[in-house]
Amino acid sequence: MTSSGTVDTNTVGTYTITYSASDAAGNTSTATRTVNVVDTTAPVVTLTGAATVTVELGGTYTELGATATDASGTVTVVTSGTVDWHCWIIYRYIFIRCFW
After folding, report:
1. 5, 15 in Cβ contact below 8 A?
2. DSSP assignment, residue 57?
3. pLDDT in tens, 35-50
4. Cα–Cα distance between 52 and 34 in angstroms, integer?
5. Smaller CB count within 10 Å for the chain: N or C?
6. β-pairing verdict for 66-69 and 44-47
7. Which residues of the chain have pLDDT under 50?
8. Residues 6 or more apart in contact with residue 65 via CB below 8 angstroms
9. Ramachandran region, residue 12 (left: φ > 0; alpha: ψ -120 to 50; beta: rest)
10. How far is Cα 99 from Cα 46, in angstroms, rounded to an integer?
11. Residue 81 Ramachandran class (φ > 0 left, ψ -120 to 50 alpha, else beta)
């Protein structure tokens, strides 16, 4: 029995392993296995600074940002939203976009 092919569990993708066997009469048989390496773990977002920030009405808000990590290593943090300085509301916003 022989086998060929490899699986890289650190890289998302589809891998094929082929198994072959032969007998003394020269008869051969093969079988293939498909291995799917997937990333089902959501990214982890870490805020820079506090999750809730209080700013005086008419004051200046400075976005502190955030970082993100992901098992696949490919992640982009996108910050969006606006603050209406004429209203007394607590805003919380951060969106993350992953590229798999």
Report:
1. yes
2. T
3. 999 999 989 999 999 9
4. 47
5. N
6. antiparallel
7. 100
8. 48, 77, 79
9. beta
10. 18
11. left
How much is the pTM? Answer: 0.60
Distances (CA, A) of 58 to 5, 13, 54: 63, 51, 12
Angle at 51 between CA 50 and CA 53, to 5 degrees: 70
Contact 59, 83 (CB under 8 A): no
Question: Residue 74 has which token pair?
Answer: 């490919």
Pull the structure tokens for residue 33.
Answer: 């296995």
Residue with tokens 């999750």: 51
Q: Rounded distance, CA 13 to CA 34, Å? A: 10
